[in-house]
DNA sequence: TCAAAAGTGTTTCACTTACACCCATGA
DNA sequence: TCATGGGTGTAAGTGAAACACTTTTGA
């Protein structure tokens, strides 16, 4: 009954509640940035050795939201910039014992993601799509969301669904800002949209759309680099990343 | 540990999983139709006497979807035309004992709703907003969604959230058809939208929009009545009521 | 001075909105 | 015949898409 590294570990035959999280972040390397997510390697029996979503058992004295934050922090050390409940998965055969998983999905700012895990994996890359586990935090690693290996339980389907929700939500909310640091250029923001949606966007039209949306605050600073300097913007925190209706009062 | 009439009944101090459903239907009386939903009166201690959402405990051998259908049928005898998971509610203090509620929301066709419950309540109306319980199905009754009494647990918030989701989804999906019988006129369909959205829609523009959406199949039949007969349509079942992404393969 | 990204202007097109108008029926 | 909802036509408005164009920097 002790909290496990990932959600589903059998005990007795009562149905138990686990909480897991799909955390997306953006890795900027090579040409275009790619969506990545942290996984945890299972160290006990159901699906031992396979990678799984970070999570753990719901504690009796905490809310679902709190459990998502806690288990995410315990297993990966990460603190997301956006966290939202995704879905409750409860197929009978999804685990040897009966487990209902309340799954959250989250976004991590690019600066927060690079510190904890990615930096420590540089010295032992042993696969095309994955980096070696970061030793300090047990068996964790970042994976390309577009080419995952076979995961434990029904976690492949869960990630697919989370990706679908992310792509949907990017179309009608300002959620993409959750993947960027405080200051960013319009090209940065556009790259986020492009890598999530999987298609190029017209820079001119993109600029007008976000400028008219009222979510950006221009700063006086510029990013100087190869060509004409680009103005840096910051996110207008008065605007919610996503409209959540009556649920936004909780939290 | 026997299934209860509504979801949250205490037993011991382990966290348990309940499944409840917010079922919307449309009552066509007076001038404009109103959204109604069935509630169940609690017959035991936490919140005894108050009305609550129909639901019950998750059985160890059934999926969440199946549990929603089963408990809905057991408590109200209703079979919805649309069923979708709404949210998992798990605040620590939402019930005396620890209960995580997986809440679904559903739509009921107007013809299905009128048979079971409404007809039997005509003889004993004792409140402005509610009808007396239908005797054959214990303590159940239909309520106007816009003016609910105080409900058990956090069920008022849950209904608010379900209403928000319904209104949202009506804007970008064909879900409103789930409230109508097989054949309907464009005025019928427009009334559904109007009563959910709470505003009038231009009949001419509404007609063009749904005609161009490809979701309607015109029949040769007409509804004759007061004025010019209106063509009857039926729903094109090749089109999903709502896009659900990777989740639509389950079920 | 040249390549390339930053940023502006303009046209086109699709779709919504508003509303005038005709059609068909029961009373 | 007339009131009323069913159904069609059409012009204005809005915003996205496409793309030509100017600006500003590093090399």
From TrEMBL, chains A, B:
It comes from Microbacterium alkaliflavum. It comes from the Bacteria. The keyword Signal does not apply. InterPro entries: NUDIX_hydrolase-like_dom_sf, NUDIX_hydrolase_dom, WH-like_DNA-bd_sf, WH_DNA-bd_sf, WHD_NrtR. Pfam families: NUDIX, WHD_NrtR. GO terms for molecular function: hydrolase activity. PANTHER family: ADP-RIBOSE PYROPHOSPHATASE, SLR1690 PROTEIN. Keywords: Hydrolase. This is NUDIX hydrolase. Gene3D superfamilies: Nucleoside Triphosphate Pyrophosphohydrolase, Winged helix-like DNA-binding domain superfamily/Winged helix DNA-binding domain. Residues 14-167 form the Nudix hydrolase domain.
